[in-house]
Amino acid sequence: MERREAIKRTAAIMGGVIFAPSIFGVLSGCTATGDPWKPVLFNQSQADLTKALSETIIPETDTAGAIEVGVPGFIEKMVNEVYTEDQRLVFLEGLDSFNSACIEATGNSFADLTSEEQFEYAFEMNRIALTEQPTGLPDFFLLFKELTMVGYFTSEVGATQVLRYEPVPGYYDGCMPFEEVGRTWAT
């Protein structure tokens, strides 16, 4: 079974738990790559924020971080090629608002903060996003975090070095006595 087929089946089982455009983008082949990213849709400030925030969410440790596996490029590609025009505008406004709020709170853009300051600010934004009442639209920070996670864990590094990977899930014994199994499965 190919990775794309496995993702399709997992998505069907999950019943839409993941935000629909994210899963659609993965199924249509939009995956994170380690290629150097040259922004197409994002301006330089938005690109810098995307790099810094994605690396804050999944930093480099004993495995590659978000930047190294190409998550910023994945996020832009998803927003540019999968999102509707309205979703794209909401996301771009969210990037700008996030950075403006960071400048107002800290005096610097998110990309210019130290890694410790970035972590503290992102941690606070995550806390706020999780505790505030939903307004109908997904919170920008949670949406960004979801795109980061999807991009990272659909990359080769995320799928094989961070997650446990089995090309064929489960053990198969084609010659097992019926007495050990009991009744047959209905599905």
Give a structural overview.
- The chain is mainly alpha-helical.
- It is 60% helix and 0% strand.
- It is built from 10 helices and no strands.
- Helix 3 (44-57) crosses helix 6 (85-106) and helix 3 (44-57) packs across helix 7 (115-131).
- The chain is elongated, with a radius of gyration of 20 Å.
Summarize the structure.
This protein has helices spanning 3-14, 20-27, 44-57, 66-69, 71-81, 85-106, 115-131, 140-153, 156-162, 178-181. With 187 residues, it is mostly helical.
Secondary structure blueprint with pairings:
Elements: H1 3-14, H2 20-27, H3 44-57, H4 66-69, H5 71-81, H6 85-106, H7 115-131, H8 140-153, H9 156-162, H10 178-181
Helix pairs in contact: 3-5, 3-6, 3-7, 5-8
Spatial extent as radius of gyration: 20 Å
Flag low-confidence runs. Answer: 14-18
Query: Could you state the order of secondary-structure elements as H and E?
Result: HHHHHHHHHH
The number of helical elements comes to 10
Q: Characterize the largest beta sheet: strand count, sense, and whether it forms a barrel.
A: none
Distance between the termini: 19 Å
Helix content: 55-70%
- Kindly state the mean pLDDT as a whole number? 81
What form results from the Cα inertia axes?
Answer: elongated
Let me know the number of strands. Answer: 0
Percentage of residues in strands: under 5%
Q: What structural category arises from helix and sheet content?
A: mainly alpha
